Amino acid sequence: MKRNLLIITVVVLLCDFSQAQHLPLFTQYRDQIGVINPGAFSHDYLLYDNPLSMGLSFRRQWVQLESAPITQPLRGEYFYESGGAVNPIFGGHIINDQTGPTGFSGIYGKAAALLSGDPFYGGLSVGFNFGLVQYRINASEIQLRDLGDPVGDTDQSLLYPDVGLGIYAYRYIDDGFLDDSHVYAGLSVPQVFGLDLEFMSENGTFSTRRIQHYYALLGLYKYFGDLAYLEPSLWLKYVPGAPVNLDFNLRYQMNGSFWLGAGGSTAGTIHLETGLLLGENYDLNNNFRIGYGFDYSFNTFGPAVGSTHEINLSYSIGR
User: Fold this and answer.
1) Rounded to two decimals, what is the model's pTM?
2) Neighbours of 276 (CB within 10 A)
3) Mean pLDDT along residues 42-57
4) List of residues 6+ apart from 110 with CB closer than 8 A
5) pLDDT by residue (tens digit) across 83-107?
6) Stretch 282-309: mean pLDDT, rounded?
7) Each residue of 119-138: b (16+ CB within 10 Å) or e?
8) 24 against 171, higher pLDDT
């Protein structure tokens, strides 16, 4: 246990040294697109014409560490095709993230608008989320001076408002090399407010800095009929004071029932994923999907911290 806390402390200190602390990561990030980018909406609409989408995920990072990061998001959203030029998107998400003695929980609402006369062929959407986040610390578990000298013995928490902004665009292409494809791209700042958090106790203080994150998404769906598609995608993450990180992935879905994917990142991580569409005759108007993601890091801490596992459950409903 002490060894695990020491490794986590070293990682946290490195993040503080670079003046950056990453928000939770996702292996199957395309399924969390509305969380990553408030202006985007679930791709269940593009793939299955289902406007209502819900999802639940569990991510266990660095499985060899007892107190390593655990992330649990719950999301839901509804896309209303109004028949006019403005199509509203409503939803929200709840997220819980715990890393050793520190963690946060947040609840968010979401509002966005897609500008499009025919949403199937493309459009431009802008949106924002708004919420309240509780940051917490189990002070008695933090050992920054040495293994016998904790910061304090009183658990503490702080509440802060949070806002995210995003813009998202997509287009259907019906000629040339990308014939029968949807291309999409987005930019977002999921945490607009930068926070300097300081927890105080009789034995001293513990502080952590959370600064703005800047995300970019780019990808496409190349359809092959019978709901089979190929999806290359990129997720770029930038945090001031830290190296730019790029995730690149390729996913292939076969006949609407089974998919496989692989990729990597410039942080020295490989990604693998697979999933199934469940239900009688794969009813796409009322479908349930389960996906599994696996990460392994080849960077400095890879052999010591182990692999990462992620389970994603999704449910969408048609018109």
Assistant:
1) 0.86
2) 14
3) 93
4) 34, 38, 77, 89, 90, 91, 92, 93, 127, 128, 129
5) 999 999 999 999 999 988 888 999 9
6) 81
7) beebbebbbbbbbebebbbb
8) 171
284 neighbors 48 (Cβ within 8 angstroms) = yes
| Contact of 124 with 115, CB cutoff 8 Å | yes
Query: What's the CA gap between 95 and 24, in Å, rounded?
Result: 9
* CATH code at position 155: 2.40.160.40
For 47, phi and psi rounded to 5 degrees? -80, -40
Q: What tens digit of pLDDT does each residue of 199-245 get?
A: 665 656 666 677 889 999 999 999 997 789 999 999 999 998 888 99
In sequence order, which residues have a C-beta less than 8 Å from that of residue 146 and are 6 or more positions away?
A: none
DSSP result, the chain: -HHHHHHHHHHHHHHHHTT--PPPP-SSGGGGHHHH-TT---THHHHH---EEEEEEEEE-STTSTT--EEEEEEEEEE---SSSEEEEEEEEEEEEEETTEEEEEEEEEEEEEE-SSTTTEEEEEEEEEEEEEEEE-GGG--SS-TT--S-S--EEEEEEEEEEEEEEEEEE-SGGG-SEEEEEEEEES--S-EEEEEEETTEEEEEEE---EEEEEEEEEE-STT-EEEEEEEEEE-TTS--EEEEEEEEEETTTEEEEEEEETTTEEEEEEEEEESGGG-TTEEEEEEEEEEEE-STTHHHH--EEEEEEEEEE--
What pLDDT does 72 receive? 97
pLDDT for 60 beyond 90: yes
Count of C-beta atoms within a 10 Å radius of residue 57: 24
| Mean pLDDT, all residues of the chain | 85
Number of domains in the chain: 1
Higher pLDDT, 224 or 152: 224
Higher pLDDT among residues 192 and 9, named by residue? 192
Domain that holds residue 150: 2-317
Q: Is 42 in contact with 51 (CB distance < 8 Å)?
A: no
